[in-house]
Amino acid sequence: MVSSSSNVSIVIPTLNEATCIDRTLRHLAWLNPPAKEIIVVDGGSHDDTVAIAEAANATIVHSAAGRSIQMNQGAAAATGEILCFLHADTLIPDDAITVMETTLKTPTIACGGFISLMAGRDQTRWGISLHNYLKTYYAPLIFRPHLFFGKGLRLLFGDQVMFCRRTDFWNCQGFDPALPIMEEADLCLKLTRYGRIYLVNRVVQSSDRRVATWGVLKANVVYLLIGFLWGMGVSATYLKRFYEEIR
Q1: In the chain, fewer beta carbons within 10 Å around the N or the C end?
Q2: How far apart are CA 10 and CA 85, in angstroms?
Q3: Per-residue CA distances from 92 to 27, 30, 31, 107 (Å)
Q4: In the prediction, which pLDDT does 246 show?
């Protein structure tokens, strides 16, 4: 992607995301100001994901599969002072770059994220979206109260479009490549060394494809189960078995 005056590099990990990556990249083309660069890190797609990203003039990085591994690879290729990690099925507002840069001008903020509104073709998932918003606060309050009150910890998840300074990201060694899920929450814990985690009062729209496939009841059970077990110290590798990929 052509460089701009902004300091934000957007990193998108992909694996067989041809059904949604085109829409996401078209929305990114409307950013004002534009991102410094858009980096698509592909984990070995067998569909048209890479061709679509190339047609949109994104920078392509080929990687081993695994979201943590892919996002670290994208961060290594990035030249912006701010790293933004975006899922291929999530749409951000056209002033998102300004929001990120303004947020991180506050030196006591180490990482930010947005409020995720989950929606599909036919409906908006208001209930699950509200729960995901509340979970940003209640999960660290329950499981890491000393960090919640003492360090301003909030737990952000992938569809909340995390962003942080590149220097802080690498100072805490980035995403843990051994984690198949919960890598964003783990990064939040590490970033509290450099400041608080801040939830921006702005909305991004994420696909409801997982909820549409599982159903609302199963989705809520799985989300709660994984969150509570992880908070109690259960291995993310074990928890991954409950969280199959949905494309």
Answers
A1: C
A2: 6
A3: 7, 10, 9, 24
A4: 56
**Residue 247 — pLDDT band, cuts 50, 70, 90?**
low
What pLDDT, in 10s, does the model give residues 164-214? 999 999 999 999 999 988 999 999 999 999 999 999 999 999 998 888 888
DSSP structure string for the chain: ----S--EEEEEEESS-TTTHHHHHHHHTT-SSPPSEEEEEES--SSSHHHHHHHTTPEEEE--S-HHHHHHHHHHH--SSEEEE--TTEE--TTHHHHHHHHTTSTTEEEEEEEEEEE-SS-B-HHHHHHHHHHHHHHHHHH-HHHHHHH------GGG--EEEHHHHHHTTSS-TT-SS-HHHHHHHHHTTTSEEEEEEEEEEEE-HHHHHH-HHHHHHHHHHHHHHHHTT--HHHHGGG-----
Tokens of 34: 């534009």
pLDDT at 245: 65
Q: Report the relative pairing of strands 8-14 and 82-85 from DSSP bridges.
A: parallel
Q: Where does residue 233 fall: left (phi above 0), alpha (psi -120 to 50 degrees), or beta otherwise?
A: left
Domain layout of the chain by residue ranges: 8-242
